[in-house]
Known about the structure:
Layout: H1 7-12, H2 24-39, H3 45-52, H4 57-86, H5 88-111, H6 132-162, H7 172-227, H8 241-254, H9 295-298, H10 314-331, H11 333-340, H12 344-351, H13 370-395, H14 403-434, H15 453-477, H16 483-512, H17 530-555, H18 561-566
Helix pairs in contact: 2-6, 2-7, 3-4, 4-5, 4-6, 4-16, 5-6, 5-7, 7-13, 8-10, 10-17, 11-14, 11-15, 11-16, 11-17, 13-15, 14-15, 14-17, 15-16
Amino acid sequence: xxxxxxxxxxxxxxxxxxxxxxxxxxxxxxxxxxxxxxxxxxxxxxxxxxxxxxxxxxxxxxxxxxxxxxxxxxxxxxxxxxxxxxxxxxxxxxxxxxxxxxxxxxxxxxxxxxxxxxxxxxxxxxxxxxxxxxxxxxxxxxxxxxxxxxxxxxxxxxxxxxxxxxxxxxxxxxxxxxxxxxxxxxxxxxxxxxxxxxxxxxxxxxxxxxxxxxxxxxxxxxxxxxxxxxxxxxxxxxxxxxxxxxxxxxxxxxxxxxxxxxxxxxxxxxxxxxxxxxxxxxxxxxxxxxxxxxxxxxxxxxxxxxxxxxxxxxxxxxxxxxxxxxxxxxxxxxxxxxxxxxxxxxxxxxxxxxxxxxxxxxxxxxxxxxxxxxxxxxxxxxxxxxxxxxxxxxxxxxxxxxxxxxxxxxxxxxxxxxxxxxxxxxxxxxxxxxxxxxxxxxxxxxxxxxxxxxxxxxxxxxxxxxxxxxxxxxxxxxxxxxxxxxxxxxxxxxxxxxxxxxxxxxxxxxxxxxxxxxxxxxxxxxxxxxxxxxxxxxxxxxxxxxxxxxxxxxxxxxxxxxxxxxxxxxxxxxxxxxxxxxxxxxxxxx
Length: 590
């Protein structure tokens, strides 16, 4: 007997619900494994470049700063590609595959003897330099890993939030907040594991296994993500904000000769139902991009602009204004990013000091950065659970301390951290010379490496105040349509900071070496003057703090501005057809 399927019965079958709690472990595991793998490679990379590729300290620092800068810059590019073309799901997959290929290439540099120059004694002048092919192989691995991070990191958090983006469920807000907490907890824990476990493996089992483990972890990262592919909510890409910024700039330039209307209502182009129907008075020249000159010619029947490069919406104009307004304060975060990005010199300092906790165990030189992370975690917990409730009662503000105050405190602490670093390095250098290690940078001093912990702890506090304060500041000041941009601005600043590290080291190296003089950032840190380098960073940090005070004063009040914009009235108003906005003036546009 033959049975046939009734199409109506098929349509009545309940569809499988997608998204929700079951997708969270896979998304969080994807990000966690990727961070353990990538952050575990960075602390010891200075030693690998100096030992395997015979680079001096200045060159190695420059290479790593370029790599770190690319890793922080490319997430902005990844966010643009994700939002405009591929969507978050595909972008994450591309990122996973690219990162895996990069880590495999890096692992092969340790596995294939021909991938490195012949080994030689450290600081020997007879060391053979790396060939262009060997460097190209190494740099290709760095480039692929940076591209991969650019695909994963900007999309992972937003993709997880997409799984709870369902209308009509009042529980979503609390669940989403819980997801954010778990996400950041796993991300921070992953960095800590990378700085400890992966570094320990590299120190005790060598580069072949030390680089092989991240390959396995990155493979697991992509595998876990793909396992739940059929359960994900996959949102389609939307129009890019960057395109909107370009359209506003072009439209404002084309309309530069027109006069702004005296009557605001009905004169500006906005989407029906939008909360933002009138532009603000800040940067009024941009308001010309959304002025309707002739409604019949400029606006289609569906309410959209006939030419989006000549007429933009009020919302587009305000989005660009929001970015331009925060740029000065954003630029003050670049210097603290320089201080946070110091990886090479603290590693060399720790390598030359007694790192033993007990007679049988010593902290790996590349793991001292964990004190920064641990301080950050502890402070966030204490501040969130104990300090904020008390400060909220005293100040009446939900944040406890204002966002700009928090950023300023972070900058001040960063100045202190660099000053402490300079003082400790001065002590370490004098001890090295006194103990006869002036010509032996590999010698271990009779000085505890625990002297380095205070500078790492202060850096962790500075990051807790400034980095988190920056992110909340951008998020509070931007319209809701720009939340993704708000959360990526800090990473962009870190990219500029990483790039500036290489520039500063290069300038210091070129300015202080030559004519028989030892560079301040010499490969022999006992003959160099790393303490002077830290004093330079301290001076720059103090100047940056003063610059922040000026920018903060010029910015004006910030708390609650976003709320005012988002809650402005006008939800039920559409395109008005009253009086002509430009009083029938005939104006030529450029």
